[in-house]
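Task: sequence design from structure.
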């Protein structure tokens, strides 16, 4: 049996909201250096497809010319991203899916008029090391690099994958190479992330190295391995747990404390007061990932930022999931976990 339609009640139809007209546009971009077109477009135009998918535009390439079609704002962003991709290649920098994702995230929806007319170039922000040149890969990294070049003590807060420690190590290596500092000191608390590792065999170095491995990885990415080993042997580079800092004055040094959320207030005070002449200190950590044994002890990182933010000579960089520069899925994982209390 067919169901009888329900009797419709009289209703007041809401006034339709005015729709914002989406203006469409088409822009041509020409690239002078044809030798850069293959890495710019990517294998089977994979790089262009990535920009298309992220910004909702259509890109067609013919010779050294690229045509972009789509919504006006998206076309403007795509042109900005492609231009920055080309500039990276022209400077000899790598261009991979992660770099393109970062450029898309950093594009700030310029107007077509501003893009076409162009603006005077500002000096590039970059850090040069023996093995590579590091450029900002998120908006917050731009501010972070400026803080690293200006302030005495910098706190870098935020989730994994945002480049807090990596960029700090790159800046430290750059200053060590140029002679701005005489020593590079990397430290972190020896705290297990929620698990007991038990007895570790070997001498003191063998026991603490597993905790410090991420710092070694960043070093090897910025310097040839033989130089890292030579400088460690000579004492120019020191990698040690925070407990080894007690009683010292760290002068003429670039000092980095990683995983600082796992320090107690007493440890953080001890570490910060090691600061010496002609030094720079960077404290990195994620306040949402505290693994201090006992669970009821306040993180020294959180306490220090509350006390010291705004003090002259101290800068604070706050990263969010939007600044994640590892694989894009890391940003989505951080977003899924954010707001969930442990």
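Answer:
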């Amino acid at each position: 049996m067919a169901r009888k339609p329900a009797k419709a009640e009289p209703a007041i139809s809401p006034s339709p909201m005015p729709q914002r007209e989406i203006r469409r546009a088409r822009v041509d971009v020409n690239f002078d250096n044809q030798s850069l077109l293959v890495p710019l477009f990517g294998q089977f135009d994979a790089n262009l497809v990535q920009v298309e998918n992220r910004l909702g535009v259509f890109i067609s390439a013919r010779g050294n010319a690229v045509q972009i079609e789509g919504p006006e704002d998206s076309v403007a962003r795509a042109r900005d991203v492609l231009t920055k991709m080309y500039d990276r290649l022209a400077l000899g920098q790598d261009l991979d899916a992660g770099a393109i994702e970062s450029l898309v995230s950093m594009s700030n929806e310029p107007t077509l008029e501003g893009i076409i007319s162009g603006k005077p170039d500002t000096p590039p922000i970059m850090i040069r090391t023996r093995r590579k040149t590091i450029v900002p890969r998120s908006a917050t990294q731009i501010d972070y690099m400026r803080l690293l070049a200006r302030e005495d003590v910098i706190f870098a807060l935020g989730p994994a994958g945002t480049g807090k420690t990596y960029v700090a190590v790159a800046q430290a290596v750059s200053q060590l190479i140029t002679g701005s500092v005489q020593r590079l000191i990397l430290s972190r608390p020896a705290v297990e992330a929620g698990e007991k590792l038990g007895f570790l065999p070997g001498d003191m170095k063998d026991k603490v190295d597993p905790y410090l491995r991420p710092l070694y990885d960043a070093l090897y990415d910025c310097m040839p391995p033989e130089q890292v080993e030579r400088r460690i042997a000579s004492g120019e580079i020191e990698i040690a747990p925070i407990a080894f800092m007690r009683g010292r004055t760290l002068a003429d040094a670039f000092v980095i404390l990683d995983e600082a959320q796992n320090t107690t207030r007493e440890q953080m005070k001890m570490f910060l007061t090691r600061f010496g002449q002609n030094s720079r200190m960077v404290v990195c950590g994620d306040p949402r990932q505290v693994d201090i044994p006992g669970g009821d002890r306040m993180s020294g990182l959180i306490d220090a930022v509350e006390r010291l933010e705004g003090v002259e000579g101290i800068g604070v960089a706050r990263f969010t999931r939007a600044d994640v520069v590892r694989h894009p899925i890391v940003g989505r994982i951080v977003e899924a976990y954010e707001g969930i209390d442990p």
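The CA atoms of residues 196 and 338 lie 25 Å apart.
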